[in-house]
Each structure stands twice: as structure tokens, then as C-alpha cells.
Amino acid sequence: MEITSIQIHQLRHHPTGLLRLITDSGREGLCPGITPEVGRMIIDHGASVVVGANPVDRERLWQALAEIDRSQKIAVRAYLDIALWDLVAGAADMPLFRYINGFRQRCPACLRGSEDLGADAVVQEAKQAQEDGFAGYIVTAHLEVAAQAVLLRQIRGAVGDDFYLRLDGNQGYTVTEAIRIGRVLEEIDAFCFDRPRPDGDLVGAKAVADAIDTPVTVTASTPIEAAQPFAVEATDQLRTGTPWGGGITDALKIVRCAEAFGALCHLHGVGAADGFAHAHVIGAVKNTPFFEATGVGVQCASPIIRNPVRVDNGTVEMPSGPGLGIDLDLDALERETTEVMENS
Amino acid sequence: MLIKEAICYISEAGSNLRSESAAKGSIVPVAPGITNVFTHSGGAGLPSPDIEIKAQEPSTSYQLTLRLVTDGGLDAYGTYGSGHNVEDLVWEANAFQARYAHMLIGVDAFDREYVWQQFWMAQRFMYTGRQLLDTIDRMLWDLASRHARLPIYKLLGGCRERVPAYINVGGTTVDDIVKDALRRKEQGFKGVKDHWYRGVKGNIEMAQALRANLGDDFLLFHDPVESYTYEDAVRVGRAMERLNYQWIEEPLQDYDIMGLRKLCATLDLPVLALEWIGAIGGQPYNTAPYLALGASDIVRQRGIGITGQVKQAQLAESFGVPVHGGDPHVILSIGHDPVFETGSGGPQPRPDEAELDCLGQMVVEDGYMSMAWVDRPAQEPDWDAIARDAVQVV
Q1: B156 vs A contacts (CB less than 8 Å)
Q2: Residue of B108, B159, B334 lying closest to A102 (CB–CB)
Q3: Chain A: residue nearest B282 by CA?
Q4: In the CATH hierarchy, which top-level class contains the domain A99-317?
Q5: ipTM of the assembly?
Q6: To which CATH superfamily is domain A3-93+328-342 assigned?
Q7: Rounded to a whole number, what is the distance in Å from the CA of A259 to chain B's nearest CA?
Q8: Is the domain defined by B3-15+58-149 classed in CATH 3.40.50.1370?
Q9: d(Cα A319, Cα B207) in Å, to the nearest integer?
């Protein structure tokens, strides 16, 4: 099989389009969720790597794309990597998570809280998440320390003991503040404290991780960044995500690095390819505890996808069709397409 | 594709004359003047005790084939055991059915990660060792390979089509090992590795002779298999640095994490470790702290399934550290195992096109390892015939 061209559709009523890897076999590899800017970068920088290649040589292609991303300071490997995985797993007639290495068919989901709510509304949202069947709630509201402490205690009071609570520090605390918040997280038995310090501040992260019992996470957006925090004991858990942390290949390498250290690795948000990529990675690994949902039901509505990733009763089911398992609405694609970018 | 049942076939597999002789794998003091420490008795150039037992008659050997029947038209299968005693193999088959079959039946045959994790835990709680994990995981990868009609390295994501190869050499004297190495060089191998146990002085003399006779560009590797003290390893390592060796492998016991760490810091020559640590060597959970502590410059692969080897390789990659050894499919799917270790068998020519299928067969030719394969389904076993000819089916 050989990839003969790349086509990127942009859509009339949707902010993101569709990447298609066209092959000489009639099969295609897809990755939805492509903005026009990203599409242009893929055509300009990634096309020359994958066009003419056999998609089963994924690792070689991933290395070449990663090198382009490094030198150009861009991130096109994610989308092409995802489409390559879709293509090869589709050709083998296997759902992607099983093509990789199946671990599970469904996974509990946490709700990622809204960022711009008042304290009362946050408590309400967490309570609603519990009622909707989610396994937990990720607090993304960011208040000054004393108010944040009150809010965290209120949330725990509202949801009771048997519900996971996480705080996403969003890189926004000093070490001193993070430790003070950390003490409250210990008190409310929080699941973890995501990135209390800015990405890259391993010294600060270590100070926080050493001080508090609640597990701390730091961000890894390349496999190399995954090993270092563990080596210097700057973190308890990792977090990564597509597309900013690369594609499925990157995510697998990062999650497996964490696994070697006996650690969990979270996948941030619904991720690239309208949620399909994270669902499949989670289906193929043991040490990612939750899918991070945007809400109940459909995670990323798209006019061209008939079977969007859904979270119902607090659970995400891994798509079961071949490859990513996207059931593409070809009529809608034709109707919606305003422009097709193609490699020259 | 769900696993519906497990069937064990015990079949005849030829016959042989059984014999055992005195094994050399302990320690001996080496001759005075060479070094002042003990070394490995295997291959130390010392005569072995003249002890041998030999059977009077050839005995029939038997093979236990495990088949995991799926509802998807293709089954997973592999060799689970062998021996000369049918009763024992029948017991082993029954034991498999009693102890482990329930961990597989009803499971999707492509849920290899789930199965690997199950059997990883089982090696602790059920004392199964690494062999069971390795066997089952490989059977499931083999099935995926036949299903997708792609060799495993392409399923993993092809990275390269060939890898330079070296081969292990040996001999009783320095002349022997030089001759052996020259012969291998002529066959196209890019380098050789010794497992030589003559202490510091003897091993440095060997290394000097190899370099002098094989030229500057030939790759040389040294594996003393845990026979050095830290001090020995520093002295040999320094000499080998000057002789442009590629690495020193397993110089100390892998358990000696402080010694290995000190050695990695001291030597410019890369130190390769982690083949023989804990209940299962070459696994990521031990490798992670070694790399974090700087106790290994290159990490070893062992047989813990394709799944386990991918984990080990990707951990090493996240440290920017090379990995070495293991399954050729894994090696072809990564970029950071620099060179392939050929067993003592030597070159393996490319089979005739007619013998090839989608599983692929390893080729070692002209100094490179590669995988010969064609897009053709693998011939499936004739289970009816196997059942008919079996001594027993469990």
C-alpha cells in the first residue's frame, strides 16, 4: 500500500475539517479536527514525508515527522500519525485499540469542569457530574488560595466521599501556594493535583511533590520529557495529550514510560481527532485511569461523523469499527466541503 | 475475536539419545599471574571434570502444542512444553487448563495488553516466571500477524528494513578466537562479541589481538557475564576504550546497582546491563530506576513477549538510551538498537520465495539482519490431523 496524496477538507458549518490520506489501495486514513492553519502546515511540512510511503512504516514516518516538528517548532506529526494508525488498523480490519494492544473496551470518565464559573456554580457542576454518573470531576476553577480552599472543601462536602476529585492547577501557583492548596487536597482526599507549576519547572514541581501526599502531575509533550520528571523525582504522575503532545505514537510512548515507573499518565481532555485518538489510546493501556469528558453524550459534534465519541453513564466505550472507527457521512462531507487542500 | 477454548495436543516429536555432562557455570580461581580474582568457570580455558551420563537407548520426545480456539476463524497456537514423558506433559496440559485457561477464555484475542498485564501479575502471585508470559503474548502477536497479513514488525510500525549484524565468537586460545572472528568477518558480519573469562590481563590481551587482526573499522563487543569486580571492570574498560570497543556488557552482577552506577560514571565505554535482574531481567519496571540513577548506558531485552519488549524499548527511548537484543521484529520497529546479535548459528540465508508468507522469516546475510516476507496468508495447521496423530488431547 502506498499513500498517493493528502487531502484536507474545510467545512461550511464547522470550524475544523478532515485530513484524508489517500492510498493506491482505495483505503483512506482519516483524522478529523483540522483547522485551516493546521491543514496548511500539514500540506507544507508533512506531506513530503508521507506521500509515497507505505503506511505500515509508521515508526520511520513518526521519527521523520517528529524531526520536522522539532526543527520547525510546529506540531503536524499528531494529525498525520493518527491518520496513519487509522489507515493501518483499518486495513487489518481491527479497531485501533486492539491493533495497538487491546486492554479494555470501556473506561470511566471524569468531567473536566468549566473554567469561568462562580464558586457556587462549580459546586453545582460537580454535583451534577456525580448525578450524571461520572467517576469524578476535575476542578479547573482557579481562585486565590483561601477562596480555592473553601471551594475545594465545599465540593467535597457536596459530592460525599466516593467521588474522585482532581484539581488542575493550570500552571498557576507558586510553590508556597501549591503546598498550601496541596494540604487541602490531602484533607479532601483528592485523586491528584495536575500541573501546579508551569511546564518545565521540575525544581518547583519536585518541591510540591515532595511536600504533599496528594499525587502531583507534570506535563510531558515528548517521550524525552516523560522520563526526566521521574528520574529527578519531580512528579508522581504524568499528563500528556494529543495533539499538543504529538499523536498516538507519542502518547503510547509517554504512557508506557510512566508505566515503567509504576505511575499513572493522564490524557488531557478529549484530544485530537474529535476524541477518537484518546479513546483508542486509553483502550490500549492500563495506567490511564480516566477519559476526560467535556460533558454528557457527544464529546465533539461534527456534521460529517455519524458516530461521535460519547460518554454515557460516566463511561466511554472504545469505538468498535475498523481503525479509528469513524463512520464518515460522505454525503455530508460533499455537501459541507468548501475547500480541499491537496499536496502538489 | 473471542477466545472460546484452549486445547492441548501432545504429539511425538522425534527421538534422541539423552546425555548430560559436567556443566561449567560456577566460579574458579584463574591461574596466578593472570589476575588475582575468581572468574566464571564456563569457558575459562580450564579442563572440565570428566563426568558424563548417557542413555543406553534413544528416547522419544514429545511436544505440547497449545491452541487457543477463537470464534474468528483463526486460532492462536504455540509450543507450550516438551519432554520425554507423556504423563508429565499431560499433567502440564491439565495444569494449564486448571490454572490459566480461565484467564484467556472469553477474552478478545487482540486484547494482548490485557492478557500481558494479567500474566505479568500472575508471575508474582502464581510464580509462573517469564516463560508463560512470553509464550502466550507471542502466540497472540502471531495471531494478529496472520490476521492482518503483515509481519509483526510492520504491525508495530516498521522503522527500518535491515540492521547491521555482529555474531558471538569463542575459542580456547587467543589464536582460536581471532581465527573465529576472521572467519565471521569474511562472512560479512560487521563485528563480533566475546564471552571470554581470562581475568583482566587475559581479556585485555584478547582484545588487543582482536583489534590488531580485524582492523580499525570492525565492531568489537565484550561480555564477561558478571565475572568482574568493579576494579577489574575499570581496568578492562579503559583498555577497551582505547581499542575502540562498542560496549562492555554485564560486567558486574546486575544486582550491583551502586557498582554499575559508579562504572557508568567512570568509563567512557558504554555499559550494558539489565539482562539478569530479579525474577525477570530486561523488564521496564527495573530498567526505569536504573536509567534514572545512571546505572546503565544501554539496556538489555529479554523474552517477556513482544508487548514487554516494546515497553522496554520505549522506556529506553524516553531516556534517549539505546536498547539491545530481543525479538528481531521489535528491533526492526525501532531506531535505537544499533546492531543485531546473531547467535552462534551463523548466517541465515533468505529462504525460497515459495516458503515465505506474511509472518516473515529472519534473514542474516552479508552482515545484515532483515525479515523476508510476502503478502500471502500463513498455512494454518491441520488440527484434525494433529488431533488424530496426537498421543493425547487435553
Answers
A1: 59
A2: B108
A3: A260
A4: alpha beta
A5: 0.91
A6: Enolase-like, N-terminal domain (3.30.390.10)
A7: 8
A8: no
A9: 57
